Amino acid sequence: MSISDPRARGGHAGHRAAKPVPRKLIAMLVTRFPALFVADRRQLHKPLKIGIDADLIAAGILTRREARSALRCYTNRRMYYVATVAGGRRFDLDGSPAGEVTPRAVEWARQQIARMDAAAERRTATPASRETLREETRIQPSTNVHRRLSLDDLRAAAAARRSGAQGKAAAS
């Protein structure tokens, strides 16, 4: 029975399962597979075997939804990307080698680390540099956008229509 199974919490199977909590799922994986998973996000992680989610599901350890949630959270950690950039082997549930990290995976991990670094830099930027960044990324208004009409403009347009309609009626 998985963590998000309603029967495990005293409910019954007719109720929709609660959204899985990745931290709790990762903690459970760390206790069951200490040779593979690391609880502390600052410690170096091991690259996981491709298809390890199917292994967790087939073993009845996690549901598909739980596996997806937990592994998404785990593999989006910075230290997981650092381990992937280092290349080398991938590992299965018992900690034994199960494939290699591909150059494509290494490049993806490098991009993700760069993205994380850029986000951290934006968060720690000084107010002056934030304003510069805002100016650089500000979308310029299009030149073909019409000026928004004020109430006086609308009244003048209505008066012009009325006078034009009256002039046409008198000419007929």
Overview of the structural elements:
This protein is mostly helical and 172 residues long. It has a domain at 21-125: Fertility Inhibition Protein O, Chain: A, Domain 1, CATH 1.10.1710.10. The chain is built from 7 helices and 2 strands. It has helices spanning 22-32, 52-58, 64-75, 78-85, 103-124, 127-137, 151-171, and strands at 89-91, 97-100. Strands 1-2 form a two-stranded antiparallel ribbon. Strand 1 and strand 2 (97-100) form a beta hairpin. Helix 1 (22-32) packs across helix 3, helix 2 runs antiparallel to helix 3 (64-75) and helix 4 crosses helix 5 (103-124). The N and C termini lie far apart (86 Å). The model has no long low-confidence stretch (mean pLDDT 81).
Q: How many extended strands?
A: 2
Any idea of the CATH class of the domain at 21-125?
Mainly Alpha
Count helical runs. 7
Helices and strands: which structural class? mainly alpha
Assigned CATH superfamily of the domain at 21-125: ProQ/FinO domain
- The helix/strand order is HHHHEEHHH
The average pLDDT is 81
Question: Which parts are unreliable, with pLDDT below 50 for 5 consecutive residues or more?
Answer: none
